[in-house]
Structure formats: C-alpha cells, structure tokens
Amino acid sequence: MSDQEKPWKHLLRGLGINLLVCIGSVSIFLGGTELVARIWYTPQKYEYTGMFEYDKEKVFGLRKNIDDIYRGGHFTTNSFGFRGRETSVEKPPKTLRVLMVGDSVTFGHGMDNEQTFSSLLEAALNKHFSDEGKGDSTVEVVNTAVPGNAPFQEYHDLKRGLQFNPDAIVLQVTLNDIIEPHAKWILEDMGIYEGNLEIISHDYVLGIANISQIDHVLKQYSAFYLFLKDMQTRIRFRDPTGKHVREKAYRKENYTSALLVTEPENPTAVKAWENALGWIRGMTSTAQERNIPIVLLVTPYDFQFSVEESFAYPQQKLRGFATEEKLYFADILQKLWELLAEHAGKEKTADQIILEEQAKGAKSTMLSDFWTEYFSDYCHPTATGHILIAEELYPLVLEALTASQAKENNE
Q1: Is residue 381 over pLDDT 90?
Q2: Rounded to whole angstroms, what are the CA distances from 331 to 106, 334, 393?
Q3: Are 96 and 401 in contact (CB under 8 A)?
C-alpha cells in the first residue's frame, strides 16, 4: 500500500467506528425509552376475533369466510369479505350482475341474509326475467356493504367490485356517511385501543387521514410510539392529563353531525360535503368510464322524517348531485312521506300532517309509530323497510340493467 492510500484507510476506519458508536448510542437510547414507556403503555398484537379486520387501503373490512350473528341477524361472508354466498370472479354466460355499495343499511343491520333488500331485489329481478320468458338469464347481486362504511371505504369497495364485471351499481348513502360521529367502535372491534381513538377514528373512516402500514405495526410493538401518540392527543385537545379527551371529542363530533341539517352553510358542514362528494364523484367517474349505470339510493335518519321537507337538505343536495352526474335516484325519505299521506287518508300533504302532529306534542305517537314500522332505530330498516327499499329500487335497477344491455348490444 502506498503512503498516499494510508490516510484514506485511517479516515474510513474512523468514520466506520463513529458510525457504529452513533448507531449503538441511538439503539441504547431507543431501547431505554422503550423500556421506560412500557411501565405505562403495553403494546398488543391485534387479533381479529370480531367481524372486522384491518385493511391497509380502506382501514377496515369484513373478515372473510365467517358465519356469525350481527345485531340479531344471521350473516355469512365469502372469500372476498362480502356478505352472502360465494361468487366467482368470472361472470357466467347470460348473467347480469348488480353491485351493491353502502354501509350498515345495505349490509342489512339485524337482518338474516335472505331478508336484506339486496337479496329481495335479486329475487324480484330473477322473477321478472323468468316471467318474461327469459328464464335462462340470471341476475346476481353482489353486496359489498360494510357497517360503518363512509364514501371513502365505498370508493375502494366499488373499485374492487369491478372485478365481477357488474352491469349496474347501487350506491347507498345515509346521513352519518357524510359526518360520522361514532366511528371508534369499528376499530375497537379490531382490538385497537389508544388515547386519541375518538377523533382519529372519525378521520380514518372519512378518508381524511390514513392508518399507514408502519403506524399499524408500530402500535402493536412499540410502547414508546404509543406514548408519542398519546402526547399528541393531549396537546391537540389541550388536556395535559388526558382525562377529558373522550368527553371533548364526543362533544365536538356530535355538534358537527347536526350541522348537516341545522346549519348546512356552516364551514364545517361545507367541508364535510366536499370530502364526501369528492369520494362519491370518484365512484361515479369510475363507473361512467366503464359505461356502468349507477342508482344513488339515499336512506333517511329518524329526525328527518318528523320535520318539514324544507329541512331535507342532505336529500336535496344528493338529488342535485344525481341530476348533475346523470344518475338514477331513489329517495326513501320522500317515499315515506308519500306513504304517510296515504296512511292519514286525508287530502293533506305530509308537511301538513307533520306540523299538526308537532303541535300535539308528546300526546301524539303517530309519526314515531309510523317510523318504527319501517325502521328499527334511527336509520336501520326493519324487514318491512327492506321490502320497501327493494320495491323502490326494482324499477330503477331494471331500467339501468336494460340500458346497460342496450349499450353492450350496440357496441
């Protein structure tokens, strides 16, 4: 070795030693902080024993191949994590497919598989083709809906559902899909518990924030990482002790949810609509690129039924969106009001009936009794409600399938 090469050799050796010392120091520091953090925080590997499992694209989805009870209703999932029977990716000859995308309403909260409006619609469409002498034509309805879904998850469900080559798509939306106040139960079902779950779960479900794969792994193995996330939450809510985070988050989210109807022009509500419609527009664009017609199904909340039509701002906004995007549109709230007027048997509008019942106060149970015939709680249909929704969807989906077939034949 020449004299000129020796300094370079010593320099590289010195750099290598310094690098090892640096790595060792950082490792000792991180190891020490991890040990200290484990005094207060205990990372746990998630074991999915409930109905949900982690999904790196859309945060959560249904576990595959399960047979279980949800809210009193028996349900099964197939190898794709969709509710119902197994479905082949390749579409059999002379088969039409309808892709259902939505939340717990479409999933069938509390219903057995065969009671959902997806199953009822499939049976009605097959009966139609049989009655028309087209018994060799079969309709398959693929239900991708998941309880807790918002348009962010539904966007990914729709894109994945395209592998089944659907001829029509039904996209169901309800009020809490726009601003979701109770999202944390989904993550808790997956075994995820952390200090800021109340607020970050809201952002996760709406697609505002994402659980990265690194974040998902670190939360299961690093107490120090859990400590850092806890401190972030306390700073965000200005609560050094962390004792009031849950209360503050709950109060903030419930206030936000009511804005959609009470203060539709509030900046928070406007921002929520922009986010939701962005994902919905992504779904409609994806379908339109493939010439697949969409039926936009809007289902109501209980308090919307007992106030005048002028307060149905979410339905009005989505109807305008459907007109703009040239979608088929089904409004279940409007149908309920029509049925209410028929039920009253008087030549009055639903608005007139509602105002009269409001004036009676607590003495009248007419509106609540009417609602509970079709809905078991604030937004989930009863078996009768599922029949009603299937009946409302039937002519629209049939028209959409006919239009899809006509386009295919012309091509």
Answers
A1: yes
A2: 14, 6, 10
A3: yes
pLDDT at 250: 46
Note whether residue 156 is domain-resident.
yes
Residue 118 lies in a domain: yes
Which tens digits make up the pLDDT trace of 238-289?
666 656 555 555 455 445 666 787 788 888 889 889 999 999 999 999 999 9
The rounded Cα 218 to chain-centroid distance in angstroms is 25
pLDDT at 373: 97
Its domain, for residue 170, covers: 52-181+261-336+382-410
Number of domains comprising the chain? 1
- Domain at 297, CATH number: 3.40.50.1110
List the Cα angle 386/389/390 in 5-degree steps.
85
In a domain, 345, yes or no: no
Judged by average pLDDT, the poorest of 40-44, 141-145, 327-331 is: 40-44
Cβ atoms of residues 106 and 380 within 8 Å: no
**Residue 22 domain-assigned?**
no
